[in-house]
Every structure is written in C-alpha cells, then in structure tokens.
Write a structure and sequence with these properties.
6-stranded parallel beta sheet; 337 residues; alpha/beta; Rossmann fold; single chain
Amino acid sequence: MRALSLTTPAPIENHPLALVEIPVPKPGPGELLVKIGACGVCRSNLHMIEGDWAANGVPAKSPIIPGHEICGSVAELGAGVTSFALGQRVGIQPLWSTCGRCEYCLTGRDPYCQAKHITGETVDGGYAEYMIAKAEHAYAVPDELSDADAAPLFCPGITAYGAVACADLAPGKAVAVFGMGGVGHMVVQFARLTGAEVTVVARGRKHLALAEQLGAVRTIDATASDPVAELKRAGGVDSTIVFAPSTPVLQQALAATKAAGTIVVGAHAEIGPFNFADGKKIVGSLLGNRQQMREVLALAAAGKVKSYVETFPLEQGEEALARLKAGTIEARAVLVM
C-alpha cells in the first residue's frame, strides 16, 4: 500500500513526509483492516510533523503514519469481531483505543483515559490506503455521507460537538466563537442548533464569509476592530468558545464573557489574570464521548450540519499541510485515496 510516512519531524517546507510503499497490515483480535477512502488534515498533524510536540513524546514511534480523522470501509475482520461486516463503511477518530476499565472509561469520559492510544500519534493513522482500527472504537458511517464529507466529523465534528455541550447554550443566550477553521466552522453549526445567537470572531474575509453562510448573526474581523469592545457594545456574551491557539485571543474571550459566563477552551493558550469575583467558568474540552460521536453522525446524515472540505490526493499531503499552515484552507483539507 501507499502511505505518507514521517521519520524525522521538520518544518513542512523541508518535506518531512515520504510517500512510501509498505505492506498492508493484518488485523489482530478485536481489530479491523480499514480501506481508507478519505482522511482529514488537522492542525495537530502539522504540530506533530513539524516537531512542536517532540518534547512531549509525540510522535511516540518512528516512522509513523499521521492522520486521525478517517472514513473508509472494512477490508478484513480480526478474530472475534462481530459488530461490523466486510465492506461496511466505518469512521475512525483520534481516540484509537482506551483501557475500558478506568474511572474515565466507565463514566463516559473515555477521551481522558490515561492509557489511551491516539490515531496517527502513538499508532499509525490515516495518511495511507489502509490502516488498522479497534472495532470498539470504530463507528458505522451513514450512507447519506460521502467519505470526504464524513472524515472531518471524526475530529472537528466531535470536537466541536463536545465543546458546545460544555458551553451551557440555549435559546436566548449569546455565544462568541473565536477561530473559524476546521473546528470553528463546525462549532458555529452545532451552536446554532441550540437556539443560541452566534457571533464569530476571526481573521480574514474568507473565514468570516463562511461564518455568515453558516448562520452567524454577527461576524467580527479581529484585524480591523477590537473584538472585546465590539462584543461589549452588543451587550456581551453568555459563553465563548475558543479554538484559536493564541493567548491574546483567549484573554479577549475571557474579557468579553459576561459575569458568571462560561469560556470553553479547545486550543493551547495562557489564561492570564483571572478575577474570581466575576464567577466565570473556564472549561477545557477534548473531543467527546462515543455516544456523542454517534449523535454527530446522525445530525450530519439528517443534513443539520455539514463539513466544508477541500480535497487533495494522498501524494499532495504536504501541499495540504503547507496550505493549512499558511491559513489558506477555508474550512477542512481532506486527503482522498
């Protein structure tokens, strides 16, 4: 099979990925061999490939195949697998496996399992024509969704859904979304389904235009005006959801949120001074649980949310990552096999 393989992390401009021919892996007990149709390109892939997380042991092995938002079909069943059939379409998300026994796994908080494996970071992922998946962490993909449309649901989709679930939204409430990339464009759609009024703060007319297309009632160009002043002039917001990896942006979100409001954070940033007397709540959000993943797929199949994608062939994976780094991908880049 063909795969994009990373041996030594380096800036994407230095071409750290190699297109290689390697044997198709064999599934073990409880596993699936998945013939990949599409794999989304995530900024966390870029961080790993460029070595930003090397000090934290990511990637955990070398060489490794990146990619963690995948849609494909079952090519082979490992021993004991009865939950899927040959040829059935399946999706794989970043959470490749968990222990199934710890307090997090037993209470529907499996993304926080301390023994988890991460697709494309500790095990080989989806920048390839085939991969191995754990059957208990694979999801049936509805027929209404193409591979390219479904793949991003398994990272930005579930990440956005989990963040919105933390944001305490309801009809009559106002939320500001900071960051309008692959995750942000899904956050806007899920937030609108709660009945809340959605404002988007982003940089660049292209991203703001997409936010308006998706139903944001207000957009703020952070390069042209002060988002905090703009939001306070409109009465402030009850919640903010931050997917921009920027300390100044997180501090803007904190300042723009009303007293007793909620700030949901899904990207690395420093909080800075925090006034406890305002009663604000800061919540970190990582993915969502397995039932929430099924709900995301059902909402997408019903046409209530949609991933906006730009597709690239596998051999143009580095080009897609370079475009992501440059900020010229409107929503989500997806590699198609």
